[in-house]
Amino acid sequence: MGRSKFIVGGLVILAAVVYLIVSSTQANAEYFMTINELKSRGASIVGKNLRVSGAVVGDTIQYDANTLTLTFDVANVPGDNKEIDAQGGLAKVLHEAVADPNRTRIKVSYSGPKPDLLKDEAQAIMTGHLDSQGVFHADELLLKCPTKYQDAVPSQAAG
Amino acid sequence: MWPEIGYGILVIAFLVALYSVGAAVYGERKRSPAWIESARRAMLLLWPLITLGAATLIYMLLTDHYEVSFVYQVTSRSMPAYLKITAWWGGQAGSLVFWSWLMSAFASLVTLRKWDRDREFLPWVIVVTSITTAFFLGLVVFYENPFARFWQTVDGNVITSMWAPANTTLMVAQDGRGLNPLLRHPGMIIHPPMLYLGFVSFVIPYAFAMAALITGRTDDRWIRLTRRWTLWAWLFLSTGLVLGSRWAYDVLGWGGFWGWDPVEIAALMPWLTGTAFLHSVMIQEKRGLLKQWNMILVILTYALVIFGTFLTRSGVLSSVHAFAQSAIGPAFFAFIGATFITSIGLVIYRWPDLRGETELKSLLSREALFLLNNLLFMSVLVVCFWGVIFPLISELVTGQKVTVGPPFYNHATGPLFASLMLLMGVAPLSAWGKSTWQTLGRAIWKPALAALVVTALIFVYYTRLAIPLLGFYLVALVICVTVYEYWRGARARHRSKGENFFLAFGRLTARNPRRYGGYFVHISMMLMAVGIMGINMFQIDTQATVPVNGALKLGEYSVKYESIAQFDAADNRQVTRAVVGVYDDKGDYLGELHPRIDYYPDAQQNMTIPGERATLTDDLYVLLVDWQPATANGATFKIFVNPLVNWLWIGAIIFWIGALIAVLIPDREPERLAVPEAQRVPQPGVAD
After folding, report:
1. Can you give the residue range of the structural domain that contains B578?
2. Which of A55, A70, A152, B64 is the most buried (most CB within 10 A)?
3. Residue B333 maps to a domain
4. Residue B593 placed within a domain
5. φ and ψ at B138, to 5 degrees?
6. Cβ–Cβ under 8 Å, residues B294 and B284
7. pLDDT in tens, A121-133
8. What stretch of H or E contains A64?
9. Which residues 64-123 of chain A have a CB within 8 Å of chain B?
10. Using one digit for the tens of pLDDT, what is the confidence trace for B265-294?
């Protein structure tokens, strides 16, 4: 009797936690995709929570300070860190992605202050969704500038 | 010359650590006090050795030795001296040295105490702490050497290596890249050491737990010996978390303080198991229950401490905190796996010895509620762990990388934290041993009613939303219960001893510092909950571009753009600073704020520093987003109103008071409660 109460209580808690985790995961999962995958999936992913990474194309950055609307294009980069390393590191991959006009690109729209790190060849990691016109609406925008922080070796030598 | 000296010292320290492990094991097997003493001395030698190695590194940081890769990466000529010193833990290699340095200091402190009563623990405590130190020194010696230098080959390539490769010459960079500007904030200077102090102090209770398991002395002696260490560890870890939050709020410029970033979670996870451990050891001390569980908790905490260091330092996860990718991942993985499996194996081996001395009888007893508290902390841990590893699992299973963000954590942990708050309200009033709804109801109805009155007032004057009202009710309940308990204790002393109330409060606290310090901490957690609910549930924001003398309105505030100026600060920052006037909805002037953008030329990076106006009801948080020169378009601002958020920081101060009461005032060894006596209703003021 004494023990069974505790076992039942423990099972109730366990069930509640499993339910919380499963339901929260289902409601809030974000799918990591490359821009190539985004293009190839097309209509099937419109409206889903997505997390996309791409190289910022500097020439396309437009910012309207009155409406705080930011638009820019991002070019496809591999989603896998190993693949990025195999191609010569993040800085090189980003540079080549922007330089290559044949890479898949998508238009990104974001509303909010212009981030300090948004510049040509930055890596943009964005969460948001795709609309039916193929524009990615970012709710959250993270930027990395690898040229500065992963460049472990100085370029200029001194005596 | 200096790099060779520094590296040489660290290699020697690594070997000494290994020697102390070997000597301790050998001495224990052969029952030879001389060998154990030798192991102890070797361990005591570690701290001076690592201090010398670290001093060499700091000297090189201070004197601009840009031929050294680590120095090049974290300092630059323009950085002030104090920042060059703190750059020690600003990068991966240096922070691993810092970790070993702290570990050796704590191990030495432990070894210097009197061991007469606990001789049999000594060799194993040495083994555990020295293995841990050796692991971190090994990472430094073999993978992440802070003394590695740049070498230039004939064809111009640069190689990073400790020793000169063939046909190369030493290359000295003209200037370093400088510490990441984000890390130059005072909060960021203290935050990592606090976190590390917390991480490292948790190794000590773990070491004693392992010693208890190996020697078979599995009574609660190991817990009593390490009680204070556990409290200090928990205090440091909590402080690290709070400072990190404050830093994020003041520096990252997104209007919040906690983003469920994997690295934040990495620091939170050992805090969760550590907090559960703090509570459940009391049950072992008082009732002889939960011994197996306490072992598992301390092992989990140790594993999570190492895992947390790994997450922050390996680049396995992408986050603002992570440094570059490195080779130390597999080493960490192997170390965590080996120590975890060994520890769990020992627990299984000693499982019969770790049985409880009595049984849990009633679901409402104090010990059952403490167990429930532990299960809830574990549930939060499982949610966090799931969130961190879910992307890896989903990629393995489906090939599609899926991740979960802050909404996942908020949804999944919200009900768990609410249940914890309810427990915090109920548990202090429950009785040991056996408790019924009736006794509990008699104890709780007054504070519960008072909390209801408070909630009614909040309903009338502040919000009518159901979930925040539930949250505020729980906050009010915990505060009322805690104050009521404290007051009952003081009244009992006032009546029986004729002390005035202030004296009674003081003596009550001093008699049982862990309990009453704990009450302070409970109240502080509730104040923090008010701040967290305020910013999560009621935050509003707006953004606009306005000309000079134009205004933005948000909530009850009106923010007027007055002027902007650019100047160079002493530390080479290029500052763009706006002056805005703040007015309330009646048009009364409240003061001015100075949101600014700092540009760091050495790191080529901007930082957006908010102007903040803090009151008890809310924070006005103004960001300068963008601006046009002279009379053009004006400037763009983003404004947040963060209601109640300052209660979070007030809570942090109360927290420190409570934690310091618990950790600084010496606790009498509490006597074990006899079972029949335990069935009484708790008597406040009596040390139970």
Report:
1. 540-646
2. A55
3. no
4. yes
5. -60, -40
6. yes
7. 888 888 888 888 8
8. strand A50-64
9. 65-66, 68, 79, 81, 85, 112-114, 116-117
10. 989 999 999 999 999 998 888 888 888 999
